[in-house]
Amino acid sequence: MSEMLKVAVLGAKGRMGTAAVAAIDAAPDMELVAALGRSDSLDILVERGADVVVDLTVPDSTEANVRFAVEHGIHAVVGTTGWDAARLAGLQELLAAHPGTGVLIAPNFALGSVLATHFAAKAAKYFDSVEIIELHHPRKIDAPSGTAFRTAQLVAAARAEAGVPAAPDATETELDGARGASVDGIPVHSVRLAGLVAHQEVLFGSHGEALTIRHDSFNHESFMPGVLLGVRTVGTRPGLTLGLDGYLDLEG
């Protein structure tokens, strides 16, 4: 029998954290060694011998949490947003000094969402126009979502590589925000509505046709297969991986 993975969850009192604690506790190949809240000391991770930490906290604390893990040789699976270019560069520098440690930063753990983003990037070069609508619960603190931001980046990169011109748009006057946020030239619209969990539509259009790629997460348990995949894989992928797609065979 293989050795159990010792896993700790940060942000264990939140909705995602609660679901992660339950999923890890039920996994036959994992042992939940810590479920930490905001005021708990990170030293507990070392004391209890955690192999992997799952960070589901808030942007203000995630960088310090992950740096602590890496400095102590603990792999990290991160679902917290707030990782801008400067923070990522600092983390890569730290990981270079700890070459055996792996970190996964994933804007979305829903496997269907990861696939939808992949499909959108594949479709991007075949249509004149593309816009993204992301819809989430009103407790979400960032807009646009990390998933929409990454989707827009990948779509824009695919269009640029294929030499697709900018989408047609004759707008001359607009209310502030009416055309959404621009992420690498891709309009992204954020909806915050009670009753929703996490949803995204990528809308493509060309003369005479349209394609919509939509993914819906109806509960937080939908993210758990991806979290468990990350926990099981991160120790075999030293260095930094951005996006759960880095752990999936999407090019085969």
Please provide a written account of the structure:
With 252 residues, the chain is of the alpha/beta class. The chain folds into two domains: 5-105 and 220-247, Rossmann fold (3-Layer(aba) Sandwich), CATH 3.40.50; 111-217, Dihydrodipicolinate Reductase, domain 2. It has helices at residues 15-26, 43-47, 59-71, 85-96, 111-123, 146-162, 224-233, and strands spanning 5-10, 30-36, 52-55, 75-78, 102-105, 129-136, 181-183, 186-192, 198-206, 209-217, 239-242. Strand 7 and strand 8 form a beta hairpin. Helix 3 (59-71) packs parallel to helix 4 (85-96). The protein is elongated, with a radius of gyration of 19 Å. The protein starts with a strand and ends in a 10-residue tail after the last strand. The relative contact order is 0.17. Its EC number is 1.17.1.8. InterPro entries: DapB_C, DapB_N, DapB_N_CS, DHDPR_bac, NAD(P)-bd_dom_sf. Catalyzes the conversion of 4-hydroxy-tetrahydrodipicolinate (HTPA) to tetrahydrodipicolinate.
Give the total of beta strands: 11
Radius of gyration: 19 Å
CATH architecture classification of the largest domain: 3-Layer(aba) Sandwich
- Uncertain regions: pLDDT < 50 for 5+ in a row? none
Q: CATH superfamily name of the largest domain?
A: NAD(P)-binding Rossmann-like Domain
Largest sheet: 6 strands, parallel
What is the general shape? elongated
What share of residues are in beta strands? 25-35%
Question: CATH topology of the largest domain, what is it called?
Answer: Rossmann fold
How many angstroms does the end-to-end distance come to? 31 Å
